[in-house]
Predict the 3D structure of the following.
Amino acid sequence: MRPAQSSSPSLTRVAAATLAALVLLSACGKKDAAPAGAAPGGQQAPAVQAGVITTKIETVALQTELPARVEAIRTAQVRARVDGNVQKRLFTEGSMVKQGQALYQIDAAPYQAQVASAQADLARAQANLVAAKSIADRYKPLVEAAAVSKQEFDNAVAAQRQGEAEVAAARAQVRVAQINLGYTNVNAPISGRIGRSLVTEGALVSATQSTELALIQQTDRMYLNITQSANDLQRLRKQAGGKIDAELPVTVVLDDGTVLPRKGKLLFSDVTVDETSGQVTLRAAIDNPDNALLPGQYARVRLSQSETRGILVPQQAVTRGGQNGDTVMVIGADNKPVSRTVKIASQQGESWIVIDGLKEGEQVMVDGFQKLQMLPPGTPVKPVPWTPAGTQAPAQAGAPAAQPNAAGAQAAAGANASGARTPSSGSPAAGATTPANSSR
């Protein structure tokens, strides 16, 4: 009986040890089977959100961006019309002047003398006319009575008419002298902004040399002289059915990228092609009340010369110039982003016009690309509607990558503080479950 009693406790211990080993092996297997993307507490990490837009095919205008040169709508050169010395400048350089306003005073003494001389000649001619007229009047009854010959009467009448002609000529000379005297006051031919004075007091100006004194330009409304390739213009005309509306709105973009809030209007396109450049000149007009545009300034203009059917996609959603051309990320039915090659026709505002490669109703990824780069390829995302106000700024080059969660950030900070090696992506600090190798 004792041998039997002594063997029973031994079997019990063996069974207990075997059960404990099975439990340990089971726990080890569960840890090894844990997904790499699981949270430290054994919870599944939430899917990364991606801002998307839903594509919609619509009729959009094809905008063309072209170079342009700004020109004042009216320009007048102030020139001297008589000879003389400039005595006074009567305006402030760079100021606004009105039509007829006095700008310069030229020495008027010689022209005052000319007026006086012409008036004296007029008085002499008028006196001669009075004498000739009195003789003709006196001879008229005498010739009827045969007291004087008809020849003498005809000579008296001719002298009277000659005196009348001399009076008319003298009056014209007086008028010419008065006009020249008036030209000594140089007035503004148009209203506008006057530039710097090209002469100073004491300068000798000449009417024969057409001395330019200043320049006046109307800048409250400006011309935009636009140049476009003749081939492009013909192509756009074909797309527009052979005709381009002359009333098209024109958007002006300055050198620094500033877009003027007001729009201009296309006036016409030239009928002649420049032989040297192969370009056509188009002219537009735009209001310029605040003088944002200056004559001679270079600018770029955007105008819609034709329309097409396409999809508007924000510019930040498109990768341009890659190995496969222009691409976007399309969210598939399984919420997995897939690269798609697209064809872009033109730009409209902050969007590209896609005419091929997308279908209506598809979801195109606009933001969340940085988060997607931290995940394995083919990882599903959670699409959410995108709005421009919620767009995240791109990370700066060389900036450290963000920790996936708060626990990982604290673990990394503790490791760096103690001089330990930064945990890898599969360590607890990175938010992943570590396999229980020690238990094995």
In short: The helical segments are 2-32, 109-144, 150-183, 230-239, 369-373, 406-417. The mean pLDDT is 79. The first helix runs from residue 2 to 32.
